[in-house]
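ZP: hey, is the NAP complex queued? I don't see it on the tracker
AM: it wasn't, my bad. submitting now with these inputs:
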Amino acid sequence: MTTTLITGANKGLGFETARRLVGAGHTVYVASRDAGRGRLAAERLGARAVALDVTDDASVTAAVRAVEAGGGLDVLVNNAGIQVEMGDDGQVVAGAAEVTAEMMRRTFETNVFGMVRVLHTFLPLLRRSGAPVVVNVSSGLASLSRMTDPGRPGHAYAGVAYPASKAAVNMVTVQYAKAFPEMRINAVEPGFTRTDLNGNSGRQTVEQGAEIIVRMAQVGPDGPTGGYFDAEGPLAW
Ligand code: NAP
């Protein structure tokens, strides 16, 4: 029996990933910063609910205790994320001329420091699993090689905070994967997906976007680690 926790799973890609992994037979914790929204989502999916705000130490510690009491953890999907420079219409409202240290801090607080907080706090539980797996939800906008290639669609993206935070997610992934070779730890790029993150301006459905998250959540001990993937395969950093 595989137990999986997905942060930010009350909606969007996290919710769809939870739905698919419940279908695959995992015991799934829908982690949500709003306990009510998380409970509703979990009820719809036949999953467990746990309150978890990635920016809050006490909240993450309490979530670890609850999951430990429930029997432990095998798979952690670090999915919660924000894109502060994105307007409700899916247009970037703060490019290089407008981005502030405060916007950078808010973005990193959730997308990077939050991910490390969750990883660090769940690490003892994961290490007790026979086959621990971590999926860090990154972005194509994290790729330095893509962002410097004018032929790539992401090249035109003007925001600074979100791509910088996801580039940090990729480096966090690489360093954790080297430190814990007994775990499978990968970064994934879901692709441009219609969710609240981008004012539902994305090109793909959540079913398509969740594909690589679901796949990497199910890698076995012989699967890849320390990599960066989209649904088509490995990506260049
Ligand atoms: P979404 O629908 O806006 O969902 C984001 C989720 O993260 C929500 O459940 C949100 O909770 C949660 N969250 C935000 N801050 C949190 C915090 N401090 N603690 C716990 N949860 C928090 O967006 P999405 O598109 O599904 O995004 C999921 C992941 O995919 C993100 O990491 C995003 O960067 C990544 N991604 C998305 C796309 C895309 O095109 N959509 C492309 C590449 C990567 P609330 O409901 O409480 O706000």
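AM: back. The chain has one domain: 3-234.
ZP: great, adding it to the tracker
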